[in-house]
Design goal:
The structure is a homotetramer of 240-residue chains. Chain A has 240 residues and is α/β, with parallel strands linked by helices. Chain A has a single domain, classed as Beta-carbonic Anhydrase, Chain A (3-Layer(aba) Sandwich). The first copy, chain A, is built from eleven helices and six strands. The first copy, chain A, has a six-stranded mixed β-sheet, with helices on one face. In chain A, β1, α3 and β2 form a beta-alpha-beta unit. In chain A, α4 runs parallel beside α10, α5 crosses α9 and α8 crosses α9. The longest helix of chain A is centred in the middle third of the chain and has 21 residues. The radius of gyration of chain A is 19 Å and the shape is globular. The relative contact order of chain A is 0.12. About 10% of the residues of chain A have low confidence. Chains in contact: A-B, B-C, C-D. The interface between C and D is large, with 93 and 93 residues.
């Protein structure tokens, strides 16, 4: 708590005086361009990853970046999506999963959760489609690869779930909204974005420096070190 | 979207190389000290406000920083709280509201929302205690002051709601968990923290510089410019 | 049933003629001063325990004197609380648990209930906070002491749950409502009341006669006969 | 509260010493013969009305003595009924309504409740069958008579609802359980019991004294002073 207090002070001493104009302007109202849905995980900071300024990202964060299908719950996700789309008119919704996700690890051993963490257990039912897809089609994968697969498929499940919301569906129909699926690698900070045409998660731009590049785009696929190239590709084709 | 892509690239070119050690270490696991529950509003960035590093804050964000009472919903809030408390053993839970909150504005005119934004309407029922308290006790306030009041009381409502969660109640009993209520002022970046003994929202530390100080602690009360001093004090006494 | 019929007749022959004035007056309307929430247990009679006349106590009784958190159910508890606070303007709400409570015994062996008594099982989920607190913190207690602990903590859980109701929160804010936690000992008829300042359940007044007194106030703690004095004190400190 | 404290003391000074044997015996366990379901109204004291001793009546009390149909809610009513029938093996369930019931008055003007007392509104939906029956068949009655009718029909609705509970249905089938519908008159303390064969609410025994008798059994019908005899009879024939 002391460190947080020190942080608050630093923020007020350094950041605020340097951004008075921006903050004054934002006090009149926000008009973020994107709704960013990601995990509560402390290693994922949406505004840091995207270097977003105050006012740029409207953010939902929960365990597992899950969006329950419309009507399945009366929690905050649906209300916040509705507000973002209908009141703020965001142009983009990004669902961003991440490697080593604790919620996805829970999905791997869902049976143990029912008694120990009943609320987490009930919550993960909203992404049961992910669990079953991976169980049905990739049950032979090793645990680490299966986890990568769950992370990737979970992002696509939430994109589908997003489509079930009336406000989202209406805006998509109008062509005023784009949905994006991302995976963030907590180890090296790289992002993979789902490419519907190529049915694969791919780097959203040319990799900047050699330090994190292995010479070609596909090298960013999680699991590449452990999996045969073809297998890794298959994994990241996703279920679309 | 272009700006976000540029941000991703900057993050990888600048931040990542400079934080390789931290990121490698975090790849092994997270152990955040606090669960930070705040609004989806794009003008509130928890890690910026607290200058938190990767790995320090576990974060829930939804419209209005609302925590439905235990059992009232099967949304992500309860599951994420349970995970934070039982699996990550966080020591602190901070509920952080903010000035000019759109969800609280919705609460001011809840009747209009039922048809226009039904999910937001249903979501705000979880903080009906806030609406009713302000309506019953401060119906004579002007709109801006009433909004400040709603923001403050809403934070306290969520603290009450947090206490109904089994995992939270058990850890509170053990003395291993502290609950904190904060209000963030989007205009000047100042934080007020709820002080249960004084029954008031007060600055959590001495104000650093004169630029943001009016000479004494109580001056940070939202609404002070518009309200008589005594009235502002009464408002921020909260309902504890 | 014959005994009940005999009772009805006695009531009409003896009580009614002697209380004609009171009953006539009450026929015009009720204005009870307190809402008394207690268990359905046949050994707990709220009006007998408090020697309350007709018209004095508004009463909720269910298995385990449980108050589900606001929004967690659409049963009678919330509606009756709302009516008591908003329409009858009661000044006090008393939650009164009791020793040897069958519902709390059920909580001790919750696993066996799911199949055998599914409605009881689902009902006890509303006081899961009690079960978890005791399991996490007092798993080493013997069964009888654990039961005493569950009874005491259950009362405090319901006080927490009460605070989530909009009508209750608003009246608490105004200072027009007090919440009380009591434990009734079915063996000797003694009451312990929760004292928030001392964080303990204590006798609400000096014990009247030596027949039920052990010479000092703290002796009324349930479990004192079985537990070391310090242990009994620790138990009844509760989680506030 | 002072009066309650005085009552507690009187109870301990007078009642407890005179009933030590009974209380000691009951501390070993309860075996009530009947489940008594009645209103929270302060003017209705089930144990006083029936002159029941400690240990004789298992009691549910809520606003309007309503029993939601099986599956309609996860509140305390169903759980308490299940416990009474399956664990305590009660032989009788009595649903006891009463004259001038506030919940039934609410049913008369249900439209006004939705905003003012939303929880009461939602609760009364469980007895919508009562409202609709009276609206459809007795819309021409004056307000007072309609209220009497609602009270009577509400008792019968709850008897029907009781029959929807698995545990109740099974015991009824076995012949081990009887259901009773009573109406308590708060003005003169008289009880009317539903007689299924005569399709009418009638006094459960010969009226004891002339003070409360008008010379024949049917005279106890509420509304007799105001209604034609035939009309009153029709009203109290109920809907069975």
């Amino acid at each position: 708590m002391k460190k947080l207090m020190r942080g608050l002070r630093q923020f007020q001493e350094n950041y605020v005086p340097a951004h008075k104009k921006l903050m004054s302007s934002l006090a009149k109202g926000q008009s973020p361009n994107a709704l960013f849905i990601t995990c509560s995980d402390s290693r994922v900071q949406p505004e840091l990853i995207t270097q977003a300024e105050l006012g740029e990202l409207f953010v939902i964060r929960n365990a597992g970046n899950i969006v329950p299908p419309f009507g399945a719950t009366n929690g905050g996700e649906g209300a916040t999506i509705e507000y973002a789309v209908k009141s703020l008119n965001v142009d983009h919704i990004i669902v961003c999963g991440h490697s080593s996700c604790g919620a996805m690890k829970g999905l791997l051993q869902i049976g143990k959760l029912e008694e120990k963490m009943p609320l987490v257990y009930n919550w993960l039912i909203h992404t049961e489609a992910t669990r079953q897809l991976v169980e049905d089609n990739y049950s032979d994968l090793e645990k680490t690869d299966k986890l990568d697969m769950l992370v990737a498929e979970n992002v696509l499940t939430q994109i589908e779930n997003l489509r079930t919301y009336p406000a989202v569906r209406s805006m998509l129909h109008r062509g005023n909204l784009s949905l994006h699926g991302w995976i963030y690698n907590i180890h090296d900070g790289r992002i993979l974005a789902y490419d519907a045409e190529r049915h694969a998660f791919v780097p959203p731009f040319e990799d900047p420096g050699k330090e994190f590049s292995h010479g070609n785009g596909a090298s960013q696929m999680p699991g590449e070190d452990r999996l045969a190239r073809q297998q890794a590709q298959r994994i990241f084709k996703g279920s679309y």
